[in-house]
Design a protein that fits this description.
The structure holds three protein chains of three kinds.
Chain A (H helix, E strand, L loop, with lengths): L1 H19 L1 H21 L9 H27 L2 H7 L4 H30 L8 H26 L5 H12 L1 H14 L6 H30 L2
Chain B lengths: L4 H20 L14 H28 L2 H32 L8 H22 L4 H29 L15 H39 L1
Helix pairs in contact in B: 1-6, 2-3, 2-5, 2-6, 3-4, 3-6, 4-5
Chain C lengths: L1 H13 L27 H46 L1
The chains are: A mainly alpha, B mainly alpha, C mainly alpha.
Amino acid sequence: MFLRGVWLVVRKDLTVEVRSREIAYTTLFFAVSCVLIFAFALVREGRAPDEAAPAVLWVAIAFAGTLALGRTFERERQAETLRALLLAPVDRPAIYAGKLLGMMALLLAAEFVLVPLVALLFQAPLLGHPFWLTGILATGTLGFAAVGTLFAAMLVRARTRDVLLPVLLYPITVPVIIAGVRGTALLLEPELDVALLRFWLALLVTFDVVFVTLALWTFEPLMTD
Amino acid sequence: MPKWFLPAAALCGVMFVASPVVIAGAPYESTMGLVQKIFYFHMPAAVMFLVSAVICGVASARFLFRGDPAQDRLGWAAAELTVLFGIIALVTGPLWARKAWGVWWQWDVRLTSSLMGWMVAVAYLLVRKYGGPGSEKLAAGLALFGMANVPFVYISVNYWRTIHPTTSVVPTLPTSMGGPLWFCFATFLLLLVLLLRLRVRLGEAHARLDALHLALDE
Amino acid sequence: MWCLALALVAAVPAGSVAQDQPAAQDEFVPISELPPQDQLPAAPLLVAAYAFVWVAVFAYLVSIARRLRGVQQEVERLESDLAKGRRT
């Protein structure tokens, strides 16, 4: 029942998105613009500063993620469909989980483009360890999206949702950004420090578990008027 | 206002005014010099910052799951005090560090986690002020997540900083707390309780105002 | 030395102290042994810190007092309005 609810929400979101592709295109374009601005600012005489690539990658993900979160719920608000969604005979946590998975799909798709772009523009061998990179990106994105989806859903009713979302989101997601940037930076070292990499990955997984649990638990009281 | 409030406020005022005199009378520290005296205000403020943050988080959780508006008022009051004591700790700390360590700021674990905690409290106040209707739940959720966040910030910054070789040495020295420090500590604790009571009173007055507006509309 | 110890105790709950020395040295060097050009006058820093604490606390007190007075005046006004409304 729960999984079915999740699946229905994901399918609904993906269907809407596949028809218009609005959020995917705008988010991706915004993320690419971010990376380009950093490239203009940081790359001097064809050389980027060391460790710039992971930072740029994660900043682009965080900024684009904020934009996508805002847009996803703005669409629900304009069409008054969030109320309908909340009235539907589905568990509230299932709605949250569905929204989270939709956001994850969108962000992972954006990262699929971002990673090669950053690797190219900053001459960073990001793709040297694809499995580790996938692990860090997936867990980091999940942590970011888990907090972001909850706050974006709560902010739908607020008047100043556009400014408040980053204000709320960034202080809370600092550990994710630190772990993501540090973990990605390790992949650029000539010799892979597996123990340290495992630590960052474990930290990200713990963060994901704690925050997804907390969000599923608080979604019900938070979204009730 | 409760009966104890005015005498307590008077006592706190006297203690606050007397505190520089008491601190001046404290033994002069030969290695750190004069700047060490910042510590007598810095440490109590930092502890009160933590105490009010915990009060805010607990009150928010209780409000979220029980819906008691009194807890909400307490949470809001505690968030304002978190910002107040946090800014005191975050300003006095660098002033001392500038002299003692030659830098204003270090991305040390305690500094970073304090700054993040302070930012969450500021975000809480921004939500309360500009969030519009329904913002009390949003703010309570933020406080809850902010509390859950602290250990993660702590671990991640701690690990990140210790990867790089640091030359910092923490000398293990015998610790003894002086009288002036406890005096300042008591002053700040009293200040926290009084300000909290005062701020909750403001929240109650607001609630009364809202009830009156409703009554007038009918 | 005990005050230095206190200083380090402060770091535990406080969160605003870093125990970093300049990178070149391995051991803890007390401030008094630093070369004179590295020494900063302490008094302005101390005065600034104390002044900031006082200003912050008083600014907050004034802000609360103003808000409280405003709200209470409003409450009284509304209460008298309500009382009038009942009489007529």
